[in-house]
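Hi U.,

Before I forget, here's the chain from the pilot set. I'm dumping it here mostly so it's searchable later in email.
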Amino acid sequence: MELSADDIDAAERLAGRPSTTDEHRELLLQTLPEIRERHRVLRTSLLAENQSPAIAFRLPAPAAAAFADAGVTLPAESGLSWDGNIATLAFAPVTILAELIRERRVTARELVELCIERMDRLAVGLYCIVSRVDREVVLAEADRADAEITAGNYRGPLHGIPYGVKDSFATADLPTTDGVKRWESRVLGYDAEAIKRLRNAGAILVAKLSMGEMAMDDVWYGGRTRNPWSPESGSSGSSAGSASAVAAGLLPFALGGETWGSIISPSATCGTTALRPTFGRLSRTGVSVLSWSLDKIGPMTRSVADCALVTDVLHGTDGVDMAAVDAPFACDFTTPLTGLRVGYDVAGWDALANSGDDAESLSGVYSAAKETIDRLLGVTLVPVYL
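Structure:
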């Protein structure tokens, strides 16, 4: 389609720019076709989604001697109580599910079937799932995990755990849409590095989860992703489906991604626990990037310990994402909290307390939080004025 001066005039009005002179329009008409052709090549390139720019933005990794790569240390579970009803595990954290699987009190197949049943029943009204791995394929993968565990080949706490990923993560056999209708059938033919690492850890991919169109907000071509606790409201974004699915008990954990708030905002909205890692901590290879110098991927879960377990599997370089660094990871949940200091934003709490109808309940939350942190955990609260 040939461009005209009227097209430029319409674009200027849409952008709110001052009118361009006729002379400038003529110059633009000479250069815009070439620019448009460059964009066409980028849009149709099979490598465009996974090509980083020529400049790598890399943060320095901490010295290797700073701390050991000790992984995650969890308290020993003694006599884990469970009533045997699989349905009661819908909201259980990965730490509990992993222990039940390791002890062979629950099978990976049972967990996958639980997720499938809940997705069949609840996902439609939440608009949180874009595509799902074929039922027979995912059940066969669960059976393989169970066979390995029975044979004594337990890979670790994610072995046999179902999960989902934001639809910006490339998958070999499922579409990767980025929330865009025109990419509804786009299959990239390869898996993101994060998916490969989770597969090696024994985790079972079940579904691709909704995201705001082109990583903006919670509206995608299928509708607006909902907050399970307030279905008339959106789940925020752009990792909208990841937060919604975990909060609704459809999946034990999911992966999200963010440039500026796209992991933490839907997590805060839906009540999930999530980690936005330091830039460069986890490889983004195979994940659509909005900003090469800002984007991170991270776990969206039901507990802090769950975030640590997933991060432990994903951290480190892969030789492709030039921003990723090799830095050790250690998270010891057996260390006492006594002696730690926690700062709290005095002005922020004061603003909430005077924010309107919810002031009384917010005041109660504030008092309960202080009581828990100060008296029960032995942590010193320090007022902070930002």
